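BUG: 3D viewer hangs when loading the predicted structure for this chain

Environment: internal workstation, default settings.
Expected: structure renders.
Actual: progress bar stalls at 90%.

Input used:
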Amino acid sequence: MRWWFLICCGCLSVIATATAAPLPFQVQASAYLVEVDHRIRWQHQINQRLAPASLTKLMTVLLLSEHYDSRQTVTISAAAARETGSRLGLRAGEVMRVEDLLAASLINSANDACHALADHIAGDQSRFVRLMNQRAREWGLQNTHFTNACGHDDVQHYSSVQDMTTLAHKVMAQPALLELMARRTLQIGNADGTRHFDLTNKNALIGRHEGAVGMKSGYTPKAGKCLVALVQRAGVTILLVMLHDTNRWWDAADILDFAYAQSHHD
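Structure tokens produced before the viewer hung:
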């Protein structure tokens, strides 16, 4: 690991006292925050407004949790079926279970499923976006504004590492959401069973990095590669939020391993 030299040089005692300082090694993220057992340990540019890509879906599913009924179904609108980017290929008029649209939004980051949930909650995406921004204000997300439910690039669609950390903590209080985020694969289907969809988690840490239990990855050309990662290993809980990282998975693995090693030296 790139940080191993720090241990060999005896620098850990210095790092332990540098609360909320930048990481002691270079990463490619424009902004990041690392928490160990709910204490911020390292951070950089946490209030910078940046495009959040599909990390946006954390807000979408949190709003769904306020109205969630797994027995309900959703008829896919033409607008949802026209969604671009990551998608299932849902058809206008097709009927899906809410629980399956939720799974597709979190595991596969499917924009058509996410848009369908927005329609289900508020009637259409524009009204849902107003609800998103209302919650952002209520929750004190001062550097966040949404223009869509899924995370498409837009000059007025932005958030910050600090605000995404707030959303991550709200997700951590929802065991059902975390359970879905921890699934590496899942098969879902439409309500009449005529079509099935195989979901594969876009979060490459799931099933590959020890203790990884969620949360969400995202990518757009403007946002770059983004990640909220939750790791629970041997009684230690680590939360990592990164925006605009060109080396996401290697940086995430290094940061998470370093944070875990450091937790034993405090």
